[in-house]
Amino acid sequence: MVRRAWAWWRSKRSLVDFAFMSPLLLISVLAAPTFTSPPPYGREDEIPEWTYVVLVVCLLLPLIWRRRWPVRVFGVIALVSFVQWAFGVEIVPANFGVLIAMYTVAANCPFRWGAAAGAIGVVGAGMATIRYTVHGQDLLAVFISQAATVGGIWILGIYISTRRAYLRSLEERAARLERERDTQVQIAMASERARIARELHDVVAHNVSVIVVQADGASFAIETDTERAKRALETISSTGRLALAEMRRLLGVLREGDDGGTYAPQPGVEQLTDLVEQIRGAGLPLDFLVDGVPAELPPGLQLTVFRIVQEALTNTLKHGGPGVSARVRLHYGDEAIEVTITDDGRGAAAADDGLGHGLAGMRERASVYGGDVRAGPRAGGGYVVVARLPIREEAKSA
């Protein structure tokens, strides 16, 4: 409620400016009765009431629109002050409005306008010194004092303008970096999906090749060896269902315009042992544990498990810091296979160069098979990655 009220208040610029001007208006009202005209007239004539009211209104009323039209408001107030000086009307508290208008120009307008307003303010200080200095006072000292006041207010306005420009540049940079980060993530996800599609190509191609070979065998054996033909047809059926499931997932990640690439046999769960030895050879102490009853998994799902472990261990090598060790646990459940990679490295304190998209790639891979990946710092230090991948019916019967 308070935040909404504050936002509404700040949106009413003229109302805010009137509130800031009101103390000066109050001072002008309280000081109204006793103003007199100074020399060079040589007599003391009380300022007529209507003159005083008109002068205060002309000096303060434009301040209500000072941030909407800062240069025009300053010009109006400066012109009123010049007319006041020309007719020898005594300085009133409302004359401080010219300094407020000068500050507004310096704080909200380009530097050339701020410099012009500051120069007019200094000239006005000199004119006021000549006209209103009491006989016997040091003109130079009075001018220096007034010019210093004008200069101080002008410098404050320039500082505020510079500060606002700096904050705007920071906001624009943050917005630009956020857009670039989102773009990089989208590019990385598209690249990762295209890579997944290429890797699954071999899996689907293998299953289709099996179907073709078994179909050819069944066509030759159907009249001479019925039992053998039956087994071939059963193989075709199970392989076809597995290939169909893989192709459905493949269509979900294919992107138009993929440039293809080279194809090679892809690793699976059995190659995790080789990966562990490779990581150990790179200098990372690593424990590898498998529990549960191993299930026969589709090649695509095996590839997903391998890539998730590979990416997580690569991140440990890059960001874990000196003396880090890791542990990989592969658990076969009835409904899902769960992969847990933990380390005792720097965790959240690790430096992020902003260029990696490993977690996005792991989540993208897992989502293809209806799984999910959770990652983050763990209690006591270090980092943990947990991937859970459902074992579908086609995988159980593979």
Automatic annotation (TrEMBL):
Domain named Histidine kinase/HSP90-like ATPase: residues: 300-393
Residue ranges of coiled coil: 160-187
InterPro entries found in the cross-reference section: DUF7134, HATPase_C_sf, HATPase_dom, Sensor_HK_TwoCompSys, Sig_transdc_His_kin_sub3_dim/P
One function term, GO molecular function aspect: protein dimerization activity
Presence of the UniProt keyword Signal in the record: no
Endpoints of the signal sequence: none
GO cellular component: membrane
Catalytic activity: ATP + protein L-histidine = ADP + protein N-phospho-L-histidine
The protein's name in its UniProt record: histidine kinase
